[in-house]
Amino acid sequence: MRSTLLLISTVLPPLFLNAPAVAGPQAAERWFNERGYVEPAGGRIIACHGYGCTRRLALSVDGGLLSRASGLLRSAQGSPTAERQALAEVIRSYTAYLAASLGGSPDVPGSPAHMSGVHGQMDCLDETANTTSLLLVLQERGLLTHHVVEQPESRGFFLDGRYPHFTAVITEKHTGAGWAVDPWRKAPGQKPEILPLDQWRQDS
Questions:
Q1: Taking the CB of the first residue and of the last residue of the chain, which one, N or C, has fewer CB atoms within 10 A?
Q2: Where are the domains of the chain?
Q3: Could you list the pLDDT tens digit for every one of the 204 residues in the chain?
Q4: pTM
Q5: How many other C-beta atoms lie within 10 A of the C-beta of residue 196?
């Protein structure tokens, strides 16, 4: 067992190792800092693209996007389910806004390898950073009634037969249930997958 663990730690870069989750208000921000990414500040987001956040663009989510998000989320305060449905619509609009702001060819879902480094194309790390940034902005504005933004999680590490993959994460305040918020398989302007975190962990 020890030799197997040593092999994993030698073969895999630290980025893909599953560290224990650290809950709390600073967990998601710490995730950005550990990777050299830039966390959101106010309504300003540093959008990642090019795979692995190798390309970055400063964007503002103030104005129309945030106003629409506020309306959707305030009308969905009745239940966690309604809030997640509203978040899916907010993120749908957000990914369309990102694509229009970045310009070039719209992001191809699933991050095909040949698109690595291409302007406007996003792998799961880019998608996770961008989605978590928006969620943190919404949380900072007091727009999340039933959920808390957590640090992103990963699944897969090659040796288990699955390619490493990351997602943004929220938890329900009342139950502590985790939910993956994952637009990686979706084209810009489509609703993300929002599914129980345990289910997401078992996917491939």
A1: N
A2: 24-202
A3: 333 333 333 333 333 334 334 455 588 989 999 999 999 998 999 999 999 999 999 999 988 999 999 999 999 999 999 999 999 999 999 999 999 999 989 999 999 999 999 999 999 999 999 999 999 999 999 999 999 999 999 997 644 455 789 999 999 999 999 999 999 999 999 999 999 999 999 886
A4: 0.86
A5: 12
